[in-house]
Amino acid sequence: MNLSISMGALTFALCLSLLTTPAVAQESEIERLKGVVESLQKRIDKLEARELQEQDKAAGYPEERDTKLENLRQRIEDLEGPVDRYNLDHERRLEQFGEEDEAKPELKVDLGGAIWINFAHQNWVGDDDGRKDDLRFDNLRLAIDSTYGNFLMSAQYRFYSWSRALHHAWIGYQFKEDNQIELGISQVPFGILPFASHNFWFMIPYYVGLEDDYDAGIKWHNGFADDWTLDLAFYFNEEYGDATDLDRYSVDVVRDGDQQNDERNQINFRLAYDWKHTEHSHTELGVSGRYGDLDNRTRKRNGDYWAAAVHANAFLGPWNLMLEGIRYEYNPENPAGVSDDLVLMGNLGSKRLVAAKADILVVNIAYDFGAVWGPIERLNVYNNYSYMRKDENSFEDSQINDTGCVVAMGPFWIWIDFILGKNAWYLNDSEANSGFGRGGTDDWEKRFNMNFEWYF
User: Is 101 within the bounds of a domain?
Assistant: First the structure.
């Protein structure tokens, strides 16, 4: 083994010497030649000065003088030839190793953020609770995006009235347009991107970690052959590397009590084709998959989890139709007494048990009116529906329907949503009666929601 390592090191050193030795030797010779040229030039200058001072005397031997000057000039020209050849060879060598002398790139930094204010009317809240109608500060977010040549970075942090969370933070490199790599906490490439919904509330995939999810790892995005995109990613763990921290934006498997599982070594794959119908209509067709380890800290054994999706995202003039089908499974290695039919998931300071195996269907439609009148630059109306069928027969299935619109006026946005939910998170469910787990009230709960947002 030591002999192999030594031979490998010797081979590497020899390769380096082949690349560097000729260049070093050539540079040394050129430096010597440059010195000779400078010396000869000084001699010519002296001769020319002497010629001016002794013009009368020089008239007696003009031919001898001219011959000496001509010889000196010829020697300079002979020496300048190798210098020019060296410069040309040097330029070619720099080009070969990608070291062309280019202008230094400019560091660009963009700072931004937003403030959200939320109003909600929740039909299940009793009058005595005093919170049937609720107006409150939702969150303040701060964002930074930067570029330096082909290098990129992006980060965002959010301060909620009840929690705080890092949304994303990554450093990347853009090889060319629509081809880049990202290292850090990035959006997981799965399903319809960037969101599988039009509304403020999101659909069921978000609440089980399959929409707008962010994890810590490395991702490569590549657009090719004009109409195709390929995303490959490997995520070491969820955002923080600490599954006990519930102050997170994305919904992930978390650890608390007898639920001691967390996500590790997740591989993601997404392939999509953009099918262009006409100048103003096209449909993205895609497949996605993910697979990872489900590490149980109590038993110190790994289960696994996986998910797969097919989707179609059609833009037909002002219409947008989203269709997505998802299958997911968590296979935990829980200790005796802990059900394998449920996994604990959480975000933004809260947690709920979720069915370990289920199918999800998403059907969304929207119409974009564009600029309607006055300050309104965009009016988009939509109806989004999602359904979750759980494998465990004793669990109640879940549904969410959201009808609403978004109004954009420059930096000021308003979301107006009427949300119907049955056995869904935050719609009259609780940790003890999780909507996406065994089921909540199994009734249609109603929430009227308005979100006022200012971006800067």
Answer: no
Q: Cα(first)–Cα(last) distance of the chain, in Å?
A: 60
Q: How many CB atoms lie within 10 A of CB 110?
A: 10
For the chain, what is the total number of helices (H) and then of strands (E)? 4, 19
| Rounded alpha-carbon distances, angstroms, from residue 79 to 39, 45, 55, 83, 93 | 12, 18, 30, 7, 22
Task: Read off the tokens for 31.
Answer: 């430096």
CB count within 10 Å of CB 104 equals 7
Q: In the sheet where 350-355 sits, what is the strand order?
A: 252-253, 342-347, 350-355
Nearest to 209 by CA among 447, 436, 387: 436
**CA 407 to CA 152: how far, in whole Å?**
31
Angle between helices 62-96 and 2-53 (to 10 degrees): 150
Distance between CA 217 and CA 209 in Å, rounded? 16
Domain of residue 90, residue span:
2-96
Bridge partner list, 173: 151, 181
Task: Assign residue 247 the CATH number of its domain.
Answer: 2.40.160.10
**How many CB atoms within 10 Å of residue 430?**
13
Domain boundary residue, one of 28, 62, 96: 96
Residues 379-404 pLDDT 10s: 999 999 999 999 999 999 999 999 99
Per-residue pLDDT tens digits for 86-139: 566 656 665 665 554 568 899 999 999 999 999 999 999 887 666 789 999 999
Length of the chain as a residue count: 456
Alpha-carbon span 343 to 438, nearest angstrom = 11
Per the CB < 8 A criterion, the answer to whether 311 and 192 are in contact is: yes
